[in-house]
Please model this.
Amino acid sequence: MSDIVMSAVDVNVRFGGLRALADLDLEIRSGEVLGIVGPNGAGKSTLFNVLAGAIRPTSGRVLLQGRDITSSRADQRARMGISRTFQTVRPFLDETLVRNVAVAALAVGDGRAHAMDVAVDLLEQVGLADKAAARASELGHGERKRLELARALAVRPRVLMLDEVMAGLNPSEVREIVELIRSLCAASGSELVLIEHLLSAVRSLADRVVVLDAGRVLADGTPDDVFGDPKVIEAYLGTKYATS
Ligand SMILES: Nc1ncnc2c1ncn2[C@@H]1O[C@H](COP(=O)(O)OP(=O)(O)OP(=O)(O)O)[C@@H](O)[C@H]1O
Model:
């Protein structure tokens, strides 16, 4: 579990005068599910963007299996096996589900027929097989999150990063997606990085949790250690977040 697959080393991101990430070090270890939590504005999405290549850090490096990929673009990183979902789901609304997923497989070099097979298989895995021919615009919010997962998986990621996939789901949809993520992780062997406000979901899924605040790592440890840490509870969680 201790092999480092990906890391951010001494990363700083400045937006004008604001330090969104400050001297940040983060490791993603082989086979782990890593939860990233923290208050609004803590820097979670910025960190995801830095790891995925959507934002170039002001200083610092991003390494993938020891290789410096700081200057690689997001599309290049996707081909290297770094895949992400977005906080705001953005499927091609007028396209069918199967074509939405196949497009992601095509982007990593699958041939057309194989991409369609991959898409059908992934829709089955996320429980949307019966809607494969429906348009994405016909889906409910929870179903769109599942579609988003299938699209992120279509690139056969080494590192899968999920940005608030539980947001806006009702409790039974949350239970379903937690179970789905658990089974997808077990089947894929990928590393999974989750940004999530719903701490109960992080607690049940993550092997390790990193708490960010004001662009810095406040705590890093097992869910029990981190969520039991008085400074985390007092300073950052308080009553602001749902814990059940
Ligand atoms: N493109 C940008 N330009 C200027 N400031 C930005 C930009 N993106 C993020 N910020 C600022 O950087 C800080 C970190 O934002 P970020 O979105 O990474 O936090 P977060 O932890 O993901 O928050 P949330 O939980 O609300 O999504 C915030 O103060 C935010 O306003």
Remarks:
- The CA atoms of residues 22 and 216 lie 6 Å apart.
- The first helix runs from residue 44 to 52.
- The longest strand covers residues 4-15.
